[in-house]
Design brief:
Blueprint (H helix, E strand, L loop, with lengths): L6 E3 L1 H4 L15 E4 L12 E3 L2 E8 L1 E6 L2 E6 L2 E5 L3 E8 L4 E7 L1 H8 L6 H9 L2 E3 L2 H19 L6 H21 L11 H16 L6 H8 L3 H12 L3 H19 L4 H7 L5 H12 L3 H8 L1
Parallel strand pairs: 1-3
Antiparallel strand pairs: 2-9, 3-8, 4-7, 4-9, 5-6, 5-8, 7-10
Helix pairs in contact: 4-5, 6-8, 6-9, 7-8, 9-12
């Protein structure tokens, strides 16, 4: 088999093809790309570093995603969660689509409080292409138009929060469609996905109190090394990275959206002291909690 170089693409690489709809001119959190027939995908092998929700408007596109062949046709949706390898893309002459591209951190922040959606997200990891009925198409279209209209508003101080609410509504509508297929009652397709599901559910409940892989591994009766290997295989992130992601996302939310002092946030998140809190935050983000809060004002 001929070796193929795989090029990693991040959200910045999609920026030249994005419309004006974004949270701000320098945002690396969310972009909207219309007219995907202009995006050069054919003849390339790409690894995506972002979350993608796309809707096919016309024509069709076939491709291999993470080693599996797929075909997206008019009215269908494609959902990928990043760290996905896309290759052997072939588009019909009339293919076109719209897509919402999100950074991992922004996507995670949007879903942090929606733990009951995880069984559906696990299903989507295995089944990224969905053929939607007319009602489902209308719901996605309505959510998309609402999001675009939000972005067209000038001087909305709550644009980011409103955008997250819009996206949460879109996720709920999509998962509502999946629930009609009884997806929530379907067993995850392998032992690895089952372990990941248990880990994510436990993490979502306990991340404010427990931040070490050893604790989660003990609760699931696995070694820390095996848990991290399984979690990375399924999601592209290690268990430690998932823990850090949820913890820092909560830190950012409290710094950005509340008037709590850093000392109060330290206590709320069960850190031993303010110095440890600051070091944890800066080690992951590169800036201090105070600098983050001042920058986001």
């Amino acid at each position: 088999m001929k070796h193929r170089d795989i090029r990693r693409i991040d959200i910045d690489d999609a920026r030249p093809y994005a419309n004006v709809y974004r949270l701000d001119d320098d945002s690396n959190e969310l972009l909207i790309v219309e007219n995907w027939n202009h995006v050069p995908l054919q003849g390339k092998a790409l690894q995506t570093g972002f979350v993608l929700l796309a809707m096919c408007k016309s024509g069709s596109i076939s491709f291999i995603l993470n080693g599996q062949k797929h075909r997206l046709e008019e009215g269908g949706a494609l959902v990928t969660f990043g760290q996905s390898v896309l290759e052997e893309v072939e588009m019909s002459d009339d293919f076109d689509a719209v897509a919402i591209i999100q950074s991992h951190d922004f996507f995670q922040e949007s879903l942090m409080s929606m733990i009951h959606l995880w069984p559906f997200l696990l299903f989507l990891m295995e089944n990224p292409v969905l053929q939607l009925g007319e009602e489902e198409r209308q719901n996605i279209h309505a959510n998309y138009e609402l999001l675009v209209n939000r972005f067209r508003q000038d001087n909305n101080p709550f644009l980011r929060e409103a955008t997250i609410c819009n996206l949460q509504a879109a996720y709920l509508d999509l998962c509502s469609s999946l629930s009609k297929l009884h997806v929530e009652n379907v067993n995850v397709p392998s032992r690895s996905y089952g372990i990941f599901d248990r880990f994510i559910r436990l993490l979502s409940r306990e991340y404010m109190e427990h931040r070490d892989v050893q604790w989660y591994a003990a609760e699931i009766n696995l070694t820390p090394k095996y848990l991290s290997e399984v979690v990375k295989t399924v999601s592209g992130r290690t268990a430690s990275q998932w823990i850090s992601l949820l913890v820092v996302t909560e830190m950012k939310s409290l710094l950005r959206n509340t008037n709590l002092s850093i000392k109060e946030i330290t206590q709320k998140m069960n850190f031993p002291n303010q110095s440890f809190f600051g070091k944890y935050f800066k080690n992951i983000t590169g800036i201090s909690p105070l600098d983050f809060r001042n920058y986001k004002k």
